[in-house]
Specification:
Number of helices: 12
Domain Pyrroline-5-carboxylate reductase dimerisation: 161-265
Mean pLDDT: 96
GO cellular component, one term: cytoplasm
Main location: cytoplasm
Low-confidence stretches: none
CATH superfamily of the largest domain: NAD(P)-binding Rossmann-like Domain
Order of helices and strands: EHEHEHEHEHEEHEHHHHHH
Binding site for NADP(+): 6-11, 68-71
CATH class of the largest domain: Alpha Beta
Number of domains: 2
Distance between the termini: 31 Å
Subcellular location: Cytoplasm
Bound molecules: nicotinamide-adenine-dinucleotide
Strand content: 5-15%
CATH architecture of the largest domain: 3-Layer(aba) Sandwich
Strand order of the largest sheet: 3-2-1-4-5-6-7-8
Radius of gyration: 21 Å
Largest sheet: 8 strands, mixed
Shape: elongated
Number of strands: 8
């Protein structure tokens, strides 16, 4: 595989850095392009990959293309890549939020096979949560390759496109909900007398540890919650307050609002 990266910004660099680190692809087989020289320099420094002049050169030289520009730059980038490909088939993996398979396919030649993904920013530290869906003309091999690349920066699942906005509501926007929770948990600690820095570290590590327990034990979160909740103890007192204040309902409503907003923005 020759992997071409169009758009070497934060997400493009994070994904390729993770893929190289995990051995999913070797740096010699990757080239990136970006009109912003500083972005391209940071990309090559982080990944060891080669560079290309523009998307046309990527289209001409790479069988697999990671499309990582902002959504409004995607159509132009795809057109250039198609010009470079000059009739050759290509696999395109898009990380542009909200752009549907149909929109992407409409900007590309018929023999470009499209995979649409919804990653999240913790991919930058190798802890992403990503879902992808694939266009009608993709192969099982294409899906396996996308799975391998995306899994190198975190947990990855395949979903039908109709569920991509649900993924946006849970994991795409989700890091922001959890930052708010971490901040609020730390506020509680500060109220009880802890220093701010210690409170933030304790809160963040608690979220990290609880998440690791869910992922590594495979137990239902309610079972893990029961394991920390002794009769008449501190934890049940706190949980009762959380239920009183509607934390569970607030999280469900937050996801619901994000899904509705994604629908409104047209990325169904
Ligand atoms: N950051 C997030 O939270 C997040 C999460 C999920 C998905 N995404 C998606 O990832 C994509 C990239 O986001 P980002 O935060 O890395 O943006 P970014 O601005 O850091 O990177 C985009 C890069 O694309 C380059 N670019 C623009 N036109 C180009 C062209 N024709 N050829 C080559 N390069 C070109 C820009 O110069 C820029 O460096 C977006 O489409 C976004 O929707 C981002």
């Amino acid at each position: 595989m020759k992997l071409g990266v169009i758009g070497c910004g934060k997400m493009g660099t994070a994904l390729v850095q993770g893929a190289v680190k995990a051995g999913a692809v070797t740096a010699e087989d990757i080239r990136g392009c970006d009109p912003v020289a500083a972005a391209l320099e940071a990309f090559t420094a982080a990944t060891g990959a080669q560079t290309a002049a523009d998307a046309a050169e990527i289209g001409a030289t790479c069988d697999t293309i990671l499309l990582a520009t902002k959504p409004h730059d995607v159509a132009a980038a795809l057109k250039l890549a198609a010009k470079g490909a000059d009739g050759q088939p290509r696999l395109v993996i898009s990380i542009a939020a909200g752009l549907t398979l149909t929109t992407l396919q409409d900007s590309a030649p018929e023999n470009f096979r499209i995979i649409r993904t919804m990653p999240n920013t913790p991919a930058m530290v190798g802890q992403g949560a990503t879902a992808f869906c694939r266009g009608a003309n993709t192969t099982a091999e294409d899906a396996a390759l996308a799975m391998q690349l995306l899994s190198s920066v975190g947990h990855t699942i395949e979903v039908p496109e109709r569920l991509i906005n649900a993924v946006t509501g849970v994991s795409g926007s989700g890091p922001a909900y959890i930052y708010l929770i971490i901040e609020a948990l730390a506020d509680g600690g500060v109220k009880a007398g802890l220093g701010r820095a210690d409170a933030i570290k304790l809160a963040a590590q608690t979220v990290l540890g609880a998440a690791a327990m869910v992922m590594e034990t495979g137990l239902h979160p309610a079972v893990l919650k029961d394991m920390v909740t002794s009769p008449g103890g501190t934890t049940i007192a706190a949980l009762a307050e959380m239920e009183n204040h509607g934390v569970r309902a607030a999280m469900i409503a937050a996801v619901d609002a994000a899904v509705r907003r994604a629908d409104e923005l047209g990325g169904s």
